[in-house]
Amino acid sequence: LKVVSGHDEL
Amino acid sequence: MNIFRLAGDMTHLLSIVVLLLKIRTTKSCAGISLKTQELYVIVFITRYLDLFTRYVSFYNTAMKLVFIGTSVAIVWYMRLHKVVKQTYSRDEDTFKHYLLIPPCFILALLIPLEFTVTEILWSFSIYLEAVAILPQLLLLQRSSNIDNLTGSYVFLLGAYRALYIVNWVYRFFTETHKIRWIPWISGLVQTALYADFFYYYIKSWKNHEKLRLPA
Question: Of B127, B97, B134, nearest to B110 (Cα)?
């Protein structure tokens, strides 16, 4: 499991 | 991009179209919270600062510009348009919205993904969006006469958040189990705030009655 940001969403 | 995310974005876009349609055709913003709309301007501007630093897709860039532009336009109509501004439900729109900003900012300082200006502002915008609907929900509770377009606007806005949750569940299982805590938890809170509204909206729709929210 990897924590990522959600910058690809609006 | 999956079908749920697209449906969520389109619902969000449609909610804005419905709101602008109400304002432009009826020349009225009665029942619409200026406080909520101002918070959305802050949300979109702080979140989409990455327009200058990060390119995801033409779709994302276009949508970001549309969200910033329409939110500014709505506030412009409500504050400055000589006919529309007179219909603003000023006396009922009393939520102290500026009080929401410092806690969201402190939370963003405490829990950003990375300690950089754009990440902190991005987290801030996610937290602020989660609670930005509160002045609007309070105004609806106080309105004795909620027109159909206003009801539809808030319903579509809530539906957009609910669809994003389905999108996240879908992404979790299709994209090698990536975790996005900040938008997930904020999104759940945001959607939960609509629960009461959804209940009365669907009830009034089923019974063919006018929408009313108990205070």
Answer: B127
Place of tokens 């669809």: B163
Q: From CA B134, how far away is CA B75, in angstroms rounded?
A: 17
What is the SS3 assignment for B179?
Answer: strand
Contact flag B60-A10 (C-beta cutoff 8 Å): yes
Per DSSP (E only), the strands in B56-202 are 178-179
CA of B183, closest CA in chain A: separation in Å? 7
Task: Report the C-alpha gap between B133 and B115 in whole angstroms.
Answer: 27
Of B67, B7, B8, the closest CA to residue B37 belongs to B67
Exposure string for B82-104, b = 16+ CB within 10 A, e = fewer: eebeebbbeebbebebeebeeeb
Task: Give 10-residue mean pLDDT values along chain B (215 residues).
Answer: 97 98 98 98 96 93 98 98 98 97 97 89 97 98 94 98 97 91 96 97 95 89
Interchain CB distance below 8 Å, A5 and B180:
yes
Task: For residue A4, give the nearest of B54, B126, B180 by CB distance.
Answer: B180
Query: Alpha-carbon distance B84 to B65, whole Å?
Result: 24
Exposed / middle / buried, residue B25 (Cβ in 10 Å: 0-12, 13-18, 19+): exposed
Distance from CA of B190 to the nearest CA of A (A): 15
Nearest CA in chain B to A4: B180
Residues B46 and B119: beta-carbon distance below 8 Å: no
